[in-house]
Predict the structure.
Amino acid sequence: MKVNGIHYRPVWQAADGSAVEIIDQTKLPHEFVVARLTSMADAAHAIRAMLVRGAPLIGATAAWGLWLAMREDASDAGLTSAYEALMQTRPTAVNLRWALDAGRAKLAPLPAGERVEAAAAFARHVCDEDAELNHSIGRHGLEIIRAIAAKKPGQTVNVLTHCNAGWLATVDWGTATSPIYQAHDAGIPIHVWVDETRPRNQGAFLTAWELGNHGVDHTVIVDNAGGHLMQHGQVDLCITGTDRTSANGDVANKIGTYLKALAAHDNGVPFYVALPSPTIDWTLADGFAIPIEERSADEVTRIPGRLDDGSIGAVTITPEGSKAANPAFDVTPARLVTGLITERGTAPATPEGLLGLFPERRAAGED
């Protein structure tokens, strides 16, 4: 996708081959900053501190973290240490484990002298594959939007999304936003209700910034407005992403997703979840075994933004001494999900629905 007319991915190998560069998402939307990662520790910090975030992008950044680690120490001990350090950065997004498991399996059989280049090739493959998967997700999601548009010719299709499942959360296109971008590019009148997504405001900060850069009509709303809009017929469908989907179709996504799914169910609004297959955790029978990350209370009690004097700062918004809890994700039961949009098509949020798209998992005994 483009920023000021220039194509960017959120993570890439520096042109001189000496580092990894990322868009520092903690600075958006007020500043566009490219940060350099020169060590595995830098990559781990970028994931943990959410300079990069979103399940697919976390996996891609971890893959580049393995490359940085192999430049520092390509021994078996170095590989094990890097794997363990990167695995500890974020607990909920399964793409992290997927990328690290695949990377370790690729590198472990090789002699130390071949691991640096192999790690770079692996990271590039992870990134390119993610972009392709997300473009395919968009093509399948576009058909859903086309069908809705056909039922209201000449009118705008209104989509509600939550958090940021855009190209900033992936390597390109995004998951939930890929159908939106492709509908916009196809000339379908489309408008997006953007949940602010407290406490880190990924919707207001990131999704709105993305959509604006691409020219997609959008409106930022407070998190609690979605149900009201649905009651008044102002939402045609919801599309969110997911950080981990269990084998039965339960989805873990940013906190507040469950409430949107409940409101959608109550008002007959289709609720879709867009995900690439590496986000499916076939080892979990249901989503309530997914570990839910508890983040710092400071994210709830303080909020960053541009101050009246033009400077960037943070302010405290709660009374001194008040405690704050900050679960980062919730689980939406499969029964509330209309369909799962994957790179292979859209499936019911059921074990059979997923296995119908991924029959090789049945052969592997993961049914």
